[in-house]
Write a structure and sequence with these properties.
Layout lengths: L2 E12 L4 E7 L12 E4 L11 E4 L2 E5 L2 E9 L3 H6 L7 E8 L13 E7 L4 H12 L3 E8 L8 H8 L4 E5 L6 E2 L2 H10 L6 E5 L2 H14 L3 E4 L15 E3 L5 E3 H4 L2 E2 L10
Parallel strand pairs: 8-9, 8-12, 9-10, 10-11, 12-13
Antiparallel strand pairs: 1-2, 1-7, 2-6, 3-4, 3-7, 5-6, 13-16, 14-15
Helix pairs in contact: 2-3, 4-5
Amino acid sequence: MAVNESLRVLRTIHYDEHHYSLFVSAGTIGPKTKPGHFAMIQAGEGFRPYLRRAFSIADVTKVAGVPALEFVVKIVGVGTAALARFAEGTPLPVLGPLGVPFPIDDLLPSDRVALVAGGIGLAPLVLLARTLAARGIAADLFYGGRNENDVLKRADFERFLGPHRCRYATDDGSLGRRGRVTELFTNALAGGVRYRRVYACGPVAMFRALAELLAEAKLEGSFAMESEMACGFGVCLGCVVPMVDGRFATICKEGPCVSPAQIDWARL
């Protein structure tokens, strides 16, 4: 059950002029959060921005011993820019945890899974990596971005999963392999690696290519879909995606984590 509460800003870490991590007190949301959940955050008072913004809950951690929620944010507009400026101690209205999380309860210690991230799509995979590591489930990370600055939280992923399980790709070759992250994943499959399930978050182009790869390889997947939304609980209908059964699903209620086999990629 989601709750609406005021959480105070604990810390903001800026990676560069476009990316930052916002840490807020966990409140009662933290203990309820599972990998893949998201929250709606009010980015300020007044009419600009007027609506809350949806963010994946990147991690449930601690800041100076205080339980905290982490949100990894890319500045793309008024709301994300405003959140970056709030001083420590500022109260923020937060609604969460929301949505359908990643399916992980059925995983066995003998299973091996893959995490595929594109750009800011790393966000929901941080807590997933932490949770899988705590359960002793082997996970390989495939993470791509336009350049090295787009590939965030590498130290956390390598700490949770092990450096040897983290592979990177960038468009300009500034980190890891030059090219697309789906090429890294394709090479792993070609090398004979098999996965119980593939978890992913990133841009639609990456999702579409990865969905095709999973269908060809007959692999299960769970994609954390991203969409602009105004409410977070299925009322505004601003986050719908077309499904193979002909209907439209609300990502905030039936997702964000959905099977790629259920999505009609030709209509998306």
